[in-house]
Each structure stands twice: as structure tokens, then as C-alpha cells.
Recover the amino acids of this structure.
């Protein structure tokens, strides 16, 4: 059986960060890191690109604001004109201050739900999906570095020695 992945298990996140720095300095591509909580500063070390979720949130917010303004225009101005302040007014711009709370709420609603759905699609999280965590101890108190050997030109023995030197408590080959 050929080894395709190697996992280094650590007991402390600072030791894991030191190991990840040493691996990347030697030219090893770290596939993923598993931890019970987010580790500040690990993304730039292992080369994870910054997220663009905020751009998607802005676009979803604009869509929500446009949808709310259309809804207000259609229901209050076009379909069922209302008397606001005792006089009928058939202009969206004049009545707009009255509907700012509604438009704001719809903007936030669409941005939040759009970002949540985008996050789940991007990370392939859906109901019924099988667990793909390589070691369940990483949900409790351990930290794991996952290295795919097909993505690296460095040998298995060298990766293993770097992990041992930098403080890995356990090394698993799969």
C-alpha cells in the first residue's frame, strides 16, 4: 500500500505553527490544518488565500436593497397608492424616508442569508454530508497538519523528520 497522505498531530497550536513554518520553508505544501478553534495567523503561513466573502455580501446586500425598493414601489406606489400624511403621494423619492427601515432590514436579510449559503456551497457543507475530519481528536484538544504527498516533491522521510524535529506528538501515514 502506498502512502498518499501524512498527518502530524500536535498538542499545542504554537508548536503546530512553528512546524508549519518549517515545512513551508523546506518547500512542503501543507494541504490543510485541523484544529478545535481558529488559529490566528495560520492562513498566511500555509498559503490560504484571503476570503472574498465580503464582496459577495456586498453584492447580496445591493440585491436586497434593490428588491426592497422595487417591493415598496410596486406595493405602495403602483399597486395600492397610500395616503401618507393625509395626502396621496405617487412618488417613491418623496415617500422614501418612511421606508428606510424596511429597505435596511431587507438589505441585511439578503446579505446575511446570501453569505451563509455561499459559505456552505464554497465549503461543500450540506445536511447529510459524511465527516471528512482525518482525526476526531482535532475536535477536542489536538491540532493536525495534513500533507498530501502527491502535491510535494520532497520525500516522505524528510517530511516525517521535519514533523518529528518540530514537535509532532504523533505521525500517521495513510
Amino acid at each position: 500500500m502506498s502512502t498518499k497522505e501524512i498527518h502530524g498531530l500536535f498538542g499545542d497550536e504554537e508548536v503546530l505553527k512553528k512546524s508549519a513554518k518549517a515545512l513551508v520553508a523546506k518547500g512542503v505544501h501543507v494541504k490543510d490544518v485541523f484544529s478545535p478553534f481558529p488559529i490566528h495567523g495560520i492562513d498566511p503561513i500555509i498559503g490560504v488565500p484571503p476570503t472574498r466573502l465580503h464582496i459577495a455580501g456586498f453584492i447580496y446586500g445591493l440585491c436586497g436593497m434593490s428588491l426592497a425598493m422595487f417591493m415598496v414601489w410596486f406595493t405602495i406606489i403602483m399597486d395600492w397608492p397610500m395616503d401618507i400624511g393625509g395626502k396621496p403621494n405617487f412618488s417613491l423619492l418623496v415617500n422614501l424616508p418612511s421606508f428606510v427601515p424596511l429597505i435596511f432590514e431587507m438589505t441585511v436579510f439578503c446579505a446575511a442569508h446570501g453569505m451563509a449559503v455561499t459559505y456552505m456551497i464554497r465549503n461543500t457543507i450540506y445536511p447529510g454530508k459524511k465527516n471528512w475530519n482525518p482525526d476526531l481528536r482535532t475536535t477536542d484538544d489536538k491540532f493536525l497538519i495534513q500533507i498530501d504527498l502527491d502535491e510535494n516533491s520532497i520525500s516522505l522521510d524528510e517530511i516525517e523528520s521535519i514533523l518529528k524535529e518540530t514537535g509532532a506528538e504523533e505521525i500517521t501515514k495513510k
Notes: The longest helix spans residues 53-79. The beta strands are 5-10, 32-34, 83-84, 87-88, 143-148, 170-173.
